[in-house]
Structures are given as C-alpha cells and as structure tokens.
Write a structure and sequence with these properties.
five-stranded antiparallel beta sheet, 15% strand, globular, 12 strands
Length: 408
C-alpha cells in the first residue's frame, strides 16, 4: 500500500497548540496511550495489523523540513524555540507496541514515552488504522465513489440553503476514509464557496495542518482532553477535581489571550464552570462542546457568561460532537442570535460512505506512572483503565460540587 502519512504536518492543529505548552511547561511528563475500537462487529486481520505496523514505521522515519517549519513560524502564537525543537524532533518507532490479538477487535496499540512525543502519535496512528482497514476490508474504489457522491450532495445542500450552519471547519483526519477523500471534500467546499458561496454558511478551515498549508486555508484547533487530563491529574499533588483550573492557568501562561477555546467536558462541565470564572472567561475567546445535550450545554454557557457580566454574543460556542449538517443547522438556528456559533465537523465530512465508519480512539490512560481519566458529560465517552481511580476522581469531584462554599 502507498505511504499514508507523508508529512509530520499531517496531524490536527491542536497537537501543535498543546505541544508548545507541553514543551515549555511539562517536558518531563511521561504518558501511555491506548487504542480502542468501539465498533462491536469490526475485526482487524493479522494482514491488516502488519500493514498498520509497516505504515507506522514509515511515519516514524519522517522529519520536518524547512518549508514546513517556515509555515509553522507564520502562525501568530508559535514561538521560535518550539520551531527549533521541532527541527530536531521525529517520531520513535520504539515507543509503539502494535500486535494482533485473538480477542476484541484483533488489534492492540500502545504508545509510551514523554508526553511531548506521544501526543503527536495519536492522530497519524488513527488515520493509518482507519485507511488500512477500509482499503483492505472493502472494495475501496466503490467506497470512494459513494463517498464522492455523498460529498457532492452535501455541498450542494449548503449552496441551495437546505442547511445553514454559519462558520464551520473540517475535523475529520482521525477517522477519514483516506487522505484523498479528506482532500476531495475540502476542495469541493472551497470550489463552491469561491464560485457562488453559501446562503448562510462559510468554510473556515481544516484541523489537518498539512492540508491547510497545501490548500491555503486556516489550520483550526486549540486543545484536546489530554491536556486537561495530564496537566490536572499528572501531578499527584494536585486535587484532580481542579483539573480544569490547572489547565486554564497553564494555557493562559502560554498564550495569554491568543488561541483560546476551552474544552469543558474532560471531568464534566459542572466542575469546569466552577473554575471558568471571570478572568478565564474573559481571556478565552470561547468554549467547545464535545459531549452531552448541545442545547442544554449552550444555554448553560450563555447563562454562565451573563452571570459574570460578559456578553455571550462576544464569545464563541464551538460544537464538535458527532455532527452532520442537519444537526448543525438546527443548533445554529437556535444559538445564532445568542452567541458566536462555530462547528467542527469530522466523520460526516471525511468518511461518509455506504459502509459504517469506524469509531476508533487513541486516549492517554497514564501520566507519570499513574492513571488519568476522562469523565465526559456522557458515560459512553469515558476512558480509564483503573476503576479505583475513577472512583477516587468521581468522589473528589462530587465532594467539591457539594461544598461550593469552600472554593476560593
């Protein structure tokens, strides 16, 4: 099979956002990551696993070139010392454990090493796994044909105003059908936007930095759950119920008012709002929704901004949870006069075919030799290998929420 990842820029933008803060503030942190396939009927064959191993090994032979580094230098918040670090950096195949298994989905992947290294492995690994599976388990030509037909219809529905979604970005790299499919749908959107535009929608950019550079659009992305988990829970002296506070403090230290969309659901939005007080709510340009009821979440954030004396119309509500144009259009209609509304749309744009897409993730499960956890606003998105730690974290959060008068 052709090499799937051909550039170290081919990852999501938030890996560079988080990566710079990790490099400056948490260079010694060690992490372990685990792959998980949530589909119950998917089985990776030994041949697929061997191809995945070969593709990851080829990825690990890449380095940044000067043209790529020059592109990164132009991004307002990227600092020169971080670019110099990236000049020396490359993935290490020794930090991967990849094997075929008789149980589960038939594939196990673990990565382990410094957080500055392992954070970068997530997105390319998932893109490789996804593309290998769909090329080897199906007639890829027929899948790609159905993908293009569906993509064409989606874009046409934006053009004629069937769906109106305001500002939106493409977030599909981790679960894309293939690299050519992701590029196809972005180009289709760009061509439509340039030729006649959409009624009440506009394309902002893509999370894929390589394609953003290649296609002349904005790279989009700020932070992921890993940042809250590792910053808030990686130091055992920290109370994990304050994970968001430690995250917000580190992010503002790194970026000030730049590059600020906060993710609310890593340990639940209830406790996030305890830390998202006036200073942080003012400095951050907005918040991102990734689990739970989007309408209840949006209304709650709007009321929170109002309670702090902040006009919610000056803040962004970004939605990124399992979206399609129909859902985004309804959410946009509900909130467009209440706040700035934006969408990050992934699998629906990058892997909508006649075959059900994979629901695969690669999550950090340990930091500094101890467990970390994600407790999102819906239980199905939780991930932790240690039930005792989940119990401890849940009790810490509940105690804090029950004793609000003790917050300071």
């Amino acid at each position: 099979m052709h090499q799937i990842i051909t550039s170290l820029l081919e990852t999501d933008m938030y890996k560079f956002s988080m990566g710079q803060a990790i490099f400056h503030q948490f260079p010694s942190y060690m992490t372990m990551w685990d792959f998980k396939c949530r589909n119950k009927d998917v089985k990776f064959t030994p041949e697929m696993v061997e191809e995945i191993r070969s593709q990851i090994k080829s990825y690990c032979e890449l380095s940044f070139n000067e043209d790529e580094l020059s592109y990164l230098k132009k991004i307002e918040w990227i600092k020169r010392d971080y670019v110099d670090y990236l000049r020396l950096w490359h993935p290490r195949f020794e930090e991967f454990k990849i094997r075929a298994t008789d149980s589960g989905c038939g594939l196990e992947i673990e990565t382990f090493g410094t957080w500055a290294n392992t954070s970068f492995y997530e997105i390319p690994t998932l893109a490789i796994v996804n593309e290998v599976y769909f090329r080897m388990a199906n007639d890829y030509g027929e899948l790609y044909k159905s993908f293009k037909e569906r993509a064409d219809k989606k874009v046409a529905a934006l053009v004629d105003g069937t769906w109106n979604i305001g500002g939106f970005s493409e977030f599909g790299m981790r679960r894309r059908l293939s690299s050519e499919a992701q590029e196809y749908v972005i180009q289709k959107i760009l061509d439509a936007q340039k030729s006649g535009g959409f009624k009440d929608s506009y394309f902002v950019g893509t999370s894929n930095v390589f394609l953003a550079k290649k296609m002349g659009v904005k790279p989009i992305g700020t932070m992921a759950h890993e940042f809250v988990q590792c910053v808030g829970q990686g130091d055992r002296k920290h109370n994990p119920a304050y994970s968001n506070w430690f995250m917000l403090e580190a992010w503002v230290k790194e970026y000030g008012v730049l590059n600020g969309i906060a993710l609310t659901d890593t340990v639940g939005t209830d406790v996030f709002l305890r830390d998202f007080r006036k200073t942080y709510a003012t400095l951050f340009s907005g918040v991102r929704h990734d689990s739970g009821d989007p309408y209840a979440w949006g209304e709650r954030l709007i009321e929170h901004y109002k309670s702090l004396g902040i006009d919610p119309k000056t803040k962004s509500l970004m939605f990124s949870d399992s979206l399609d144009f129909e859902r985004a259009s309804a959410i946009y209609a509900h909130f467009k006069d209440k706040a700035r509304v934006a969408f990050g749309i992934g699998t629906y744009l990058a892997n909508d075919t006649d075959v059900e897409p994979l629901n695969i993730v690669m999550k950090v499960t340990e930091c500094n030799d101890g467990p970390v956890a994600k407790l999102s606003d819906v239980e199905g998105k939780n991930m932790c290998k240690d039930p005792a730690y989940i119990d401890y974290l849940t009790r810490a959060i509940n105690w804090r929420l029950e004793h609000k008068e003790l917050d300071f």
